[in-house]
Amino acid sequence: GAVVSQHPSRVICKSGTSVKIECRSLDFQATTMFWYRQFPKQSLMLMATSNEGSKATYEQGVEKDKFLINHASLTLSTLTVTSAHPEDSSFYICSAPSGKDTQYFGPGTRLTVL
Amino acid sequence: QKEVEQDPGPLSVPEGAIVSLNCTYSNSAFQYFMWYRQYSRKGPELLMYTYSSGNKEDGRFTAQVDKSSKYISLFIRDSQPSDSATYLCATVFQGAQKLVFGQGTRLTINP
User: Fold this and answer.
1) What is the pLDDT of residue A100?
2) Taking Cα atoms as reference points, which of A114, A106, A28, A60 lies closest to residue B36?
3) Are residues B7 and B106 in contact, defined by beta-carbon separation less than 8 angstroms?
4) Which positions in chain B touch A101 (Cβ < 8 Å)?
5) Cα gap A19→A11, rounded to integer Å
6) Regions in chain B scoring below 70 on pLDDT
7) Fewer CB within 10 Å, N or C, chain B?
């Protein structure tokens, strides 16, 4: 299947700092990517749709000024958590569609805000 | 009512057993159905993908879709401890890209 990578896999930061997470499609191009967050023992919650060349589309209740998304190229989307706080600690996962109606997920990034 | 309902478990079975995981969905417009496996602290891995009613088999895994009753299943034969993970069903409208997930079922296969 298609490969999606994320970097970093784990990050620990102090409260108030900003953290950037990268999502790359390694062997295919993706005009759209998706960002999810997942709390322990819960399912994935879609945060936003990242669109190459245009603004991201955010789900209801997700603060777009806090979670900045940039889809810089057909293989790279970044999620920046600005002024992170402990409640932002979570597992962040990206995905990219490949082929007809299938999506492939990155390995996830575990964010811990102290 | 959630668009996709899935029993979160946990489900614990002995090694070698046949495992049945199930989801129901509410919108008959959903056209494509997927099962993902997620190990702890990892991203979901696509296991099975299907778009028509009936069965699709891949090794020890069989995905079953019944569109008339809006019911999807994943069967795992000869279950192994390495199958222990959370299994997520997902569906999507034709032409759309945004997946709708079930809650996920935590499965443990005991040696």
Assistant:
1) 64
2) A106
3) no
4) 31-32, 49, 51, 92, 94, 96-97
5) 8
6) none
7) N
